[in-house]
Inverse folding.
């Protein structure tokens, strides 16, 4: 697929000169590396210009909106912590798209893995009630990661064995997962005391993993960053990661060179699902204390955007998550100051995503090096 | 003919009535996607188009007082989104599937943003028959009340089938979808044909969206669509890219979606949320049985296989 042609093998084999439109001196000499940095940046600028125009059309001063967004995201210690809180699930849900993408799959079912991870963690927390907190927490996270891995792994399995389009199947699985959550919290796992918002029983205050010392942010942030680093090492520095890139580049060639293509596809999907499931488990173990419809908050969908914006690169996911977490965090301030609807941040995300995908056309637009431009 | 006298017969009746109601948006989106995919391109963004269509249809109906202008407006807005997708994915190296995911997010975000003030007011609706799904007394007569858009879709499906087979544009469209090189060699502008096909697909998806806000459920809110736009894309695969089979598949999906509410209407509430998942499970099951690991379906436009 287009999105994954940026695999390391390809990049190393054919150094691409930069698109002339970016007009950065020395770009031609640096080739794809700088291109991969400058073009997303350009897409970012274009997105904000378009968003500014949109906001202006809606009758609000764009510059003031941008300033408030900055304030709401990074301006104060409080808002920065808010940003970090929103960024931590994104780190993990982004991996649900990024890891399979390395093997050439477009998985968009992170929401389902996230929700089921939360549900499984909630159920495990209730089931293990009475055990020492360490056991309960360990059980919750294993259950969450396993649920996510099974869910997205199933999409990978269907793709590998039956050729089922993973984009559609993972999304359908998402909806099925959300229906399962609704069924469980309304029926078999319902806490009779939860009247307004049907939920599973509370996992118990002792089993809640608190915030990190001195912060308002839970440990999911650290786990997410570690997971992204691990994903980077796995995809860029291991034989398995290389074979995944091979599968993503040309599955038939990979098969001929002895790569077990099905295995790679399923493992990448399962790992991605486990990451999203872990994020869901954090939501239950550190935030809500129980599984309910609050889990369906769009973190899975935002993760898709993060992954594409980061070009499915483990290290790039970290700053991009912070950036998108910041955008999400600024939504509240935009509502209060300008009375903008809460969907404002969704519009910005949508514009960003469309412009970013459209900017793919700038890569390698010039087929030959132009020495005159490379100063 | 009250529910009590109908007894268990109320269930198939409610499923029948529900199938027609639930299938209408599926029908329009899948017919639209069918046109687009026959040209060799996939537009996953129709989910966003559907939601935008629902919002725009409601808005235009509210502003003009005419639900049919609402339907038209929804179609126009859908065409614009289709044009954006068609134009951008015509650029080299832009992936139509990834762009579709992006357009889905953009469409939904825009619809929620622009549609915020439309949640409260009531717009004139299509059909003008107040007809609740959760009606405790479903009657045979009201079950046979078929909305006009469904009838239009019923006529449109064979018309499209005929058009694809027997008209000049249908032939060009299929050529572009089967072999872009061949179409280029005969002198057709592949990107332009695909752009038009995506615009047409967007128009139909927009109309399908207007059904959601103007007939059933019949109001605009943010939880209106639950993935119908994407399921319709899967439905096109199941229908093997034939408009007439899209019609049958839509009815099947609609029926699956109507099982839960139909059971609930006669007092069977066990597993209500699981029944809600029935269309998704059905889609998935169909995808699994109709896919093959080794070869693409013979009816699949060859240019689609190449892009995947």
């Amino acid at each position: 697929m287009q999105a994954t042609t940026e695999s390391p093998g390809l990049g190393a084999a054919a150094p691409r000169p930069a698109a002339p439109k970016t007009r950065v001196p020395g770009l031609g000499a640096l080739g794809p590396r700088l291109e991969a940095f400058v073009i997303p940046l350009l897409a970012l600028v274009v997105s904000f210009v378009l968003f500014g125009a949109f906001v202006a059309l809606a009758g609000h001063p764009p510059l003031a909106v941008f300033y408030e967004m900055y304030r709401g995201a990074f301006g104060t210690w409080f808002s920065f912590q808010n940003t970090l809180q929103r960024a931590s699930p994104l780190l993990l849900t982004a991996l649900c798209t990024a890891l399979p993408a390395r093997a050439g799959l477009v998985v968009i079912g992170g929401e389902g893995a996230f929700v089921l991870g939360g549900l499984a963690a909630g159920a495990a927390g209730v089931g293990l009630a009475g055990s020492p907190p360490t056991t309960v927490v360990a059980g919750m996270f294993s259950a969450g990661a396993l649920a996510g891995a099974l869910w997205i792994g199933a999409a990978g399995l269907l793709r590998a064995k039956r050729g089922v389009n993973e984009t559609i199947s993972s999304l359908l699985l998402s909806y099925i997962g959300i229906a399962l959550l609704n069924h469980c919290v309304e029926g078999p796992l319902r806490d009779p005391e939860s009247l307004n918002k049907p939920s599973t029983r509370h996992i118990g205050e002792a089993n809640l993993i608190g915030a990190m010392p001195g912060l308002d942010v839970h440990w999911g942030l650290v786990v997410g960053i570690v997971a992204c680093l691990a994903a980077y090492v796995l995809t860029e520095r291991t034989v398995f990661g290389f074979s995944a890139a091979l599968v993503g580049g040309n599955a038939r060639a990979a098969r001929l060179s002895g790569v077990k293509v099905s295995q790679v596809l399923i493992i990448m999907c399962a790992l991605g699902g486990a990451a999203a499931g872990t994020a869901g488990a954090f939501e239950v173990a550190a935030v809500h204390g129980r599984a309910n419809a609050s889990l369906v908050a769009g973190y899975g969908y935002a993760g898709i955007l993060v992954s594409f914006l980061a070009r499915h690169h483990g290290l790039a996911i970290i700053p991009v998550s912070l950036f998108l977490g910041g955008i999400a965090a600024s939504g509240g301030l935009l509502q209060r100051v300008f009375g903008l609807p809460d969907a404002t941040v969704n519009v910005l995300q949508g514009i960003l995503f469309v412009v970013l995908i459209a900017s793919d056309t700038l890569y390698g637009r010039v087929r030959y090096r132009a020495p005159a431009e490379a100063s | 003919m009250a529910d009590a006298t109908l007894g268990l017969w109320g269930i198939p009746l409610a499923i029948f009535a529900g199938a027609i109601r639930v299938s209408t948006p599926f029908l329009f989106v899948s017919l639209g996607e069918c046109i687009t995919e026959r040209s060799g391109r996939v537009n996953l963004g129709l989910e966003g188009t559907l939601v935008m269509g629902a919002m725009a249809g409601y808005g235009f109906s509210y502003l003009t007082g005419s639900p049919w202008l609402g339907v038209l407006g929804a179609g126009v807005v859908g065409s614009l989104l289709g044009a954006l997708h068609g134009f951008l994915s015509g650029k080299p190296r832009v992936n139509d599937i990834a762009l579709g995911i992006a357009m889905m997010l953009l469409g939904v975000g825009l619809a929620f943003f622009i549609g915020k003030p439309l949640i409260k007011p009531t717009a004139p609706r299509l059909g003008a028959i107040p007809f609740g799904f959760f009606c405790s007394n479903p009657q045979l007569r009201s079950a046979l009340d078929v909305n006009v858009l469904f009838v239009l879709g019923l006529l449109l499906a064979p018309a499209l089938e005929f058009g694809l087979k027997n008209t000049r544009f249908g032939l060009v469209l299929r050529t572009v979808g089967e072999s872009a090189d061949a179409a280029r060699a005969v002198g057709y502008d592949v990107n332009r044909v695909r752009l038009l096909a995506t615009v047409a697909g967007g128009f139909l998806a927009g109309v399908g969206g207007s059904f959601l806000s103007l007939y059933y459920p019949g109001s605009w809110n943010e939880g209106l669509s639950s993935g119908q736009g994407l399921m319709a894309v899967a439905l096109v695969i199941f229908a093997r890219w034939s408009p007439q089979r899209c019609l049958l598949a839509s009815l099947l999906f609609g029926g699956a979606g109507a099982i839960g509410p139909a059971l609930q209407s006669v007092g069977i509430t066990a597993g209500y949320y699981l029944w809600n998942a029935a269309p998704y499970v059905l889609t998935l099951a169909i995808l699994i049985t109709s896919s093959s690991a080794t070869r693409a379906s013979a009816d699949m436009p060859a240019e689609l296989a190449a892009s995947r």
In short: The radius of gyration of chain A is 22 Å. Chain A is about 70% helix and 0% strand. Residues 1-29, 366-371 of chain A have pLDDT under 50 and may be disordered.
